[in-house]
Automatic annotation (TrEMBL), chains A, B:
The active site is at D266. PANTHER family: DIHYDROOROTASE (PTHR43137). The keyword Transport does not apply. GO terms for biological process: 'de novo' pyrimidine nucleobase biosynthetic process; 'de novo' UMP biosynthetic process. Binds 2 Zn(2+) ions per subunit. Its cofactor is Zn(2+). Belongs to the metallo-dependent hydrolases superfamily. DHOase family. Class II DHOase subfamily. Keywords: Hydrolase, Metal-binding, Pyrimidine biosynthesis, Zinc. This is Dihydroorotase.
Length: 368, 368
């Protein structure tokens, strides 16, 4: 049997949403990933430590693992999965992030760090879903003072880096800010989130304290998948998928297992109605590991997937987990939508109707 | 009263569709334009002279001018419009075009010309709506033989020029075919339709027998209007609107009244349902002259609009009309959708909710 075991898969960028949406999407991540970085752009956004901690509690309360595994059970290819499920305990860590905004204070940053929140997430104002409270300007004296402290505290700055220019140039136009920050705060780790432009890769390589996260869809799609034939709202996300050259460069760096890049799905569930109304975001949580295995295997780089989907993140973000989760994938055609539907609730699943080369065969956990 | 009179406005690229859609959209063009070039990409496409002539007859049968003027009456700003309507006779000429396909024969081209059809419309296979029967390859010996004859007969070749490459590069990648054809057939007039890429302007200027048509929306929009904020299917068309640089270049050449470029709206009605399913095309027929006046006036180039919207086409396509239609526009805020709805039937009108600076004040016709 042709299998691959991924140990402690980590998703360093995910939108888990709230309430019924949280309930619907969490099982897919909680079952197959050991840790996820939960984005703070809720409505309202998580502007202080208190709201981040309250959100973390909600996520943990929704972590009903029996339910989670029952939901993903139809997608597990194993004749006797119950036997494995018995071994599964609460093995899922949501890593939290604080939404950076114009009124953020030094005291709030210190409080966050003390409370175990070490990731600051910066959105430029209006750049994406619920980014209305984002920063209108990044390089302000006040914010630079905060970053000085964040650096001292060993925090990490994750940035949705887009200018307000022409959509295809936005990420590239924002790079000078990354450069400025990387030079000004040489021991602050700074992440270029959901990298979509090949120029960002060069920038990450230029500074030791710059890193990147990469989504599945930026490895697979170009703008042609959105506008090349009929308009396809389900391939629409921010930053928008770009040119074939960009995709090739991002794919190459991910396949290489380059230690400066970790996997972050940017799984962003929106109802079909919201998608038809133009919302940006791709919901890919249910098929991530299957699709990543298929992709890396197709390119004969499966040996680098463990780095891309786990080890790099553990190192960059200095994550330690008190357990080990093994996800065993088997080379066998898998179509998510074939079991029940290509939807999870009112949300269309990315690649939900496509044949993937790998399916999940088992999930096993043990104490670290 | 601040008015401008446009004489014999001509729309050198329009989709009039069939049946109920034809009935719904024709009044807007028939009332305000003296002539239009009707596109042959119907379903099924107009692959021979007979079907083109049958389509022309259908259009003429639908030209109920009383109905047409009654439909546009609410959009005319005139206290006593009836007085003018009495003067209006049948003053509308649909210019027809033959769909170029792989099985087109020399005899069919000759027959078309004899029947008064002098425009050949070429679509690359699959480039846009109903282009499945388009040419899989352009520069074939067989087609070049046909073009030799078309040149001899004084016909005109209109091309939807897009490669099957990356969407933002498709028009530029097709230009070498225009160059090849322009050189091979120096007295054949060749039109780059609905120009969307600034490189096409250079190409038109390079060869005396190359010309271009320009839409309203390519003068106004960039890709950002489709994907820059929320996804907006109503701004989606083929060729897709491109970069700010492209728009600026196209706008500049249109505003200059450059004699090698004529107006062609590419008004392409699709039901809202079809648009939500990703159909490419913008329906702008009801607001064309109002929006063009507003745009040219805003840029202080209103004196060149007559050339752009009429004289250039008369000369390039060698059109003579047995009547003169004057459309009098008045500088007064106009919102199409304010009267009844932003829709015509099930079709959303481009800019239907926007305030335009000009409205139509009167339409008068006389014998040439």
């Amino acid at each position: 049997m042709d299998t691959i075991t991924l140990t402690n898969p980590i998703d360093m960028h995910i939108h888990l949403r709230q309430d019924s949406l949280l309930q619907a999407v969490l099982p897919y991540s909680a079952s197959c990933f050991s840790a996820v970085l939960a984005m703070p752009n809720l409505n309202p956004p998580l502007l202080n430590t208190q709201s981040v901690l309250a959100y973390k509690e909600k996520i943990m309360m929704e972590c009903d693992f029996e339910k989670a595994y029952n939901i993903i059970l139809p997608h597990i290819n194993n004749q006797n999965p119950q036997a494995n499920l018995l071994n599964i305990q609460q093995h899922f860590v949501p890593i939290m992030s604080l939404y950076v905004h114009d009124n953020l204070t030094l005291a709030e940053i210190q409080k966050a760090k003390t409370s175990g929140i070490k990731i600051l997430k910066l959105y430029p104002k209006g750049a994406t879903t619920n980014a209305e409270n984002g920063m209108s300007e990044v390089l302000t004296p006040n914010f630079l003072t905060l970053l000085e402290e964040a650096q001292r505290l060993g925090m990490i700055l994750s940035i949705h880096g887009e200018s307000n220019g022409f959509s295809m140039d936005r990420e590239r136009e924002f790079l000078f800010i990354f450069e400025e920050l990387a030079k000004s705060f040489p021991t602050l780790k700074i992440i270029i989130e959901h990298l979509s432009d090949r120029h960002s890769i060069e920038m990450v390589h230029k500074y030791p304290n710059l890193f990147g996260t990469i989504t599945l869809h930026h490895l697979l799609l170009t703008l042609d998948d959105v506008i090349g034939g009929k308009l396809n709202p389900f391939m629409f996300c921010k930053p928008v998928v770009k040119t074939p050259k960009d995709r090739e460069a991002i794919l190459e760096v991910a396949l290489s297992g380059d230690s400066k890049f970790s996997f972050g799905s940017d799984s962003a569930p929106h109802t079909i109605e919201a998608k038809m109304n133009g919302a940006a975001g791709i919901f890919n949580a249910p098929i991530l590991l299957q699709a990543l295995c298929s992709l890396f295997d197709k390119h004969k780089k499966i040996e680098n997937l463990q780095d891309f989907v786990s080890c790099n993140a553990l190192q960059i973000y200095d994550i330690s987990l008190p357990f080990v989760k093994h996800v065993i994938l088997q080379k066998k055609p898998f179509v998510f939508g074939r079991q029940i539907s290509t939807q999870v609730g009112d949300i269309e699943v990315f690649m939900g109707n496509e044949i993937l080369d790998y399916c999940i065969a088992d999930i096993r956990t043990e104490v670290a």
